[in-house]
């Protein structure tokens, strides 16, 4: 059964959600730094302000939250039980924006990778993936 919470409580929860320096993003940053990769953060001159940018490698990495960016098949990509139409529209816009920004980056010659929040829970696998992306 969907969880129904008050509008005030939902607003408080949404206000507390950060856009930068999230837990999953920090995990990716720590691992990338530990394997010797150096990066830039949230470059405003690039479409979508990628979370990590590796200029020499022409690689942009976005660390997406499974809930907000609708990770297909992930249990973390649930839909709130209240105001379902609003959430459906919100998630649709998020996914469309993500695709648009990825296409813009690729058109500018960048490689784009998405690391999902749930993937940050397995540091060994994440480290292997980052090594493959950064040191082919």
List descriptors:
136 residues, alpha+beta, Endonuclease, Chain A, four-stranded mixed beta sheet, globular
Share of residues in strands: 5-15%
* Radius of gyration, taken over Cα atoms and rounded to an integer in Å: 16 Å
Which CATH top level class fits?
Alpha Beta
Query: How confident is the prediction overall: mean pLDDT?
Result: 91
The number of helices is 5
Low-confidence stretches: none
Helical fraction: 40-55%
Question: Briefly, what is this?
Answer:
The protein has five helices and four strands, in the order ααβββααβα. The chain is of the alpha+beta class and 136 residues long. Strands 1-2-3-4 form a four-stranded mixed sheet, sandwiched between helices.
Protein architecture, described:
The chain has a four-stranded mixed beta sheet, sandwiched between helices. 16% of the residues are buried. The protein is globular. The mean pLDDT is 91. It has a single domain, classed as 3-Layer(aba) Sandwich (Endonuclease, Chain A). It has helices at 7-15, 23-34, 66-69, 84-107, 123-134, and strands spanning 40-41, 52-54, 59-64, 111-116. With 136 residues, it is of the alpha+beta class.
């Amino acid at each position: 059964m969907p969880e129904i919470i008050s509008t005030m409580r939902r607003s408080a929860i949404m206000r507390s959600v950060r856009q930068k320096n999230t837990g999953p993003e920090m995990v990716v940053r720590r691992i990338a730094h530990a394997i010797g990769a150096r990066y830039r953060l949230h470059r405003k001159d690039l479409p979508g302000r990628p979370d990590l940018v590796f200029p020499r490698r022409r690689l942009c990495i976005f660390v997406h939250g499974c809930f907000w960016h609708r990770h297909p098949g992930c249990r973390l990509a649930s839909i709130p039980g209240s105001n379902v139409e609003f959430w459906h529209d919100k998630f649709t816009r998020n996914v469309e924006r993500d695709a648009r920004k990825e296409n813009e980056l690729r058109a500018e010659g960048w490689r784009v990778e998405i690391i999902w929040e749930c993937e940050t829970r397995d540091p060994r696998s994440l480290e292997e993936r980052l090594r493959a992306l950064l040191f082919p």
